[in-house]
Amino acid sequence: SAGSQESRISYAHIDGNGAVCLVGEKGDSSSSVAIATLFVEGRLTTFTTPKVARLNGVTRIGTNGLIACGDLGTIARIESRGIEVVGSICSAKLNAIAITPTGGAFTVGAGGHALSLSSNLESTLEAVQTTQEMFALWVGDDGTAWGGSARARILRRSTSTWHRVRDLRQMHDVRAIWGT
Fold first, then answer.
1. Minimal CA–CA distance to 117: which of 129, 103, 130?
2. How far is it, in rounded angstroms, from Cα 67 to Cα 58?
3. What's the pLDDT score for residue 78?
4. How many CB atoms lie within 10 A of CB 156?
């Protein structure tokens, strides 16, 4: 109906202890706000912030911190009190974020953007061998990061550079990636 506030979930993060965090947007085509929903110990809590239109990915950094990425290069903390927008680390829409074994994170997005984040959320732009939008991200236990992009590209991070290792010509976009 006109004026309805529909929620659209972009990503879910599930901890080993069963806590769940969903991120996305709430609103209509003319106006939306970022949304985060936490399900912890049987309690469901939803937060919104008008400071960003959409959150696209979320991961846990450290023992307590949920960190989300979103439109316009947004990095945000999600806590039991709500969503705190930390700031914008680039001009691109960031689509995915994943923790590293060293306590930081990587985030990827539009225009082939890839950034590393320290544990205190200081960002460093990294070189990427594609200008295609990156949608997917996975980091192995050894710290090796893999990304998937538009035009079916697979990228592997090595020494602060994301190298294109494979084009999957039979596919359109790589929207999810996972390893063992």
1. 103
2. 6
3. 95
4. 15
Listed in sequence order, the residues at least 6 apart from 154 whose beta carbon sits closer than 8 Å to its beta carbon are 146, 147, 148, 164, 165, 166, 167, 168, 174, 177
- The answer on pLDDT for 170 being more than 90 is no
Given a cut of 70, whether residue 155 has pLDDT beyond it is: yes
Distances (CA, A) of 136 to 17, 108, 145, 155: 24, 8, 10, 10
Tens digit of pLDDT for each residue in 61-107? 876 689 999 999 999 999 889 999 999 999 999 999 999 999 999 99
Rounded CA separation 75/116 (Å): 12
Assess contact for 36 and 46: CB atoms under 8 A.
yes
Which residue do the tokens 């949920």 mark? 66
Give CA–CA dist 146/109, Å, rounded.
Answer: 13
